[in-house]
Amino acid sequence: MKKIKISILACTLLLSLGCEKILEEHPQSQIVPSYFNSPAGVLGGIAGVYNEIRNQWGTEGFSSEMQAGTDEFIQGASSGGGPIHTFNGLNSTNFGSAWGTSFTSINTLNGVLKFGQSISLPEATKKQYLAQAKFLRAYWYFYLVQTWGDVPLHTEFITVPSQAAKRDPAAEVYKLIIKDLTEAAADLPDKPTAPFLGKAATKPVALFFLAKAYLTRGWLTNSQTDFAEAAKISSDIIANKATYGLDLWQDFGDAFVPANDYGKETMFVSDHSNDAKFGYYSVGGGSSGGAAQNLTPWFTNWNYPNNSGVNSTVNASGILVNSGTSLMVRDSYYGRPYQRIRPNSVKQTAGETAGMNYFLDQAFVKRDIDSRFANTFYTVYIANQSITNTATAANNKRGISYTTQIGVDTAVWLPDFEVAGAPQFIGTRPFKGIVVPPSLWKADVYPAIKKHMDPSRGSNFNDPSTRPVVITRFAEVYLVGAEAYLQAGNKAKAAELLNVIRQRAAYRKTNTAAQNTAAAEAMLIKEADVTVDFILDERSRELFGEWMRYQDLVRTKTLVKRIKLWNNEAAPYVKDFHLLRPIPQSEIDRTVEGPAFTQNPGY
């Protein structure tokens, strides 16, 4: 590399939300070795790396890199186009926002690990600091190796710029990841402990990523030993959930209630705050889309303020045409309409999935029993402005005049089944709002993800979200364990773990006890049902929109197959070499000493 970046702490740093949970450090323009000669310096280095996670997870470009162009998502009306959605033209100049961030963080952590050994702290505290650094180094390397394969492996703190760089084998990278996570798990506390409060790394978080690293390496090398180890670790985490203060909420929807963001199901997060002293948020200023802002709630939103005309009709081609005064205005509850990506509800036109769409026909099936569809997506929009629609208004086919009531009338209903008479009637009954069934969903009208929404926008509902980005939930421990047990040849145990997740999904607060019992029974699967594809579908149901779908498909070597089955946009272009992303051109260009820095095949 032409220049090795040293981690920059350009503002006060934040680890955890809540007045009693905030870690503060003085601004530093650059980290140099002397900075690590004190406990505050070491702690500041760790906090800086947590900050770099905030610069990726929850931001726009990175979120698209982790989800767009998969079986789950296709382009929304304002996607901006581009190869990240279709793989068409994907190259070294249009991918890789986190490459530099990763190596900046890794170098900072190497400094922490080098100098942190000699700082004056109680031994238990020092161990926790170093364990945090090992976890975070493994976390970043795990992202790197999954994304690019062979990458530079650095374990020494670099202070002298170099114009040389090389790629080390993925096998060596995984050795470091597993070593770091194993050692981190041994020294991290069971539950969040000061100064790493909120939901920073703990023992079960390190163990979870260790299990996932073994699982991922197992897929690469077909290692039964790795699959067995991933399965064992997952089961151990579940068996010790009380010790770790972890559990599933009885109701799937409760995992996404803002008050539960730091609750028992949440394992690891990237924090956000509306406190101006942290430098990323100005109340009432709106979101700029820049680094460290959590814009997750808005990415899948359709343009409900502009496309909810009260007298919308269907044209001769069967397309919904917006017409009449909008039934909705933008508000904090329904969020900003970014329209970057949308659920893949487009029917396939050929092959074994012809006439089906992934969203409703494969992923979210059993919607009458399984609560995850209803808890994940908005399908009902209640009027937030009152309009008067006259019987003679253009395109009003209802033959009646009426006025909508704010907070009472349904403005837009997006049912998950076809409705005769849509969009202005339900059967023969006039509907005050509009009905948009699946056949009318398109790039600017579709169910939006609601589980990440943040209605607490203060004076400006265009402000970024200050909810944490929840990177890991306890539910995924069951899914990783099920996948590992399947690959290790124990389908019965895989089914057992999947059934815990599935039966939780059957619970609804509005059901009677008898109804919940019957629903749970209906969700049970048998070991013969468990396949890799079934687990991937189950991951969609449980984790839709949680920043990992591309990695899921790459890990299980199903990226090309599933895109060709389900994604019409990307199917013509996706190739086997897309299992790895293109190395950023900037890295290749900066390597001017020694051997050239090689690009991944196909790019």
UniProtKB/TrEMBL annotation:
Domain of life: Bacteria
Pfam families named among the record's database cross-references: SusD-like_3 (PF14322), SusD_RagB (PF07980)
Keyword Transcription applies: no
UniProt-annotated location(s): Cell outer membrane
Domain RagB/SusD as annotated: residue spans: 446-603
Record has Signal as a keyword: yes
Family stated for the protein in its record: Belongs to the SusD family.
Name this polypeptide is given: RagB/SusD family nutrient uptake outer membrane protein
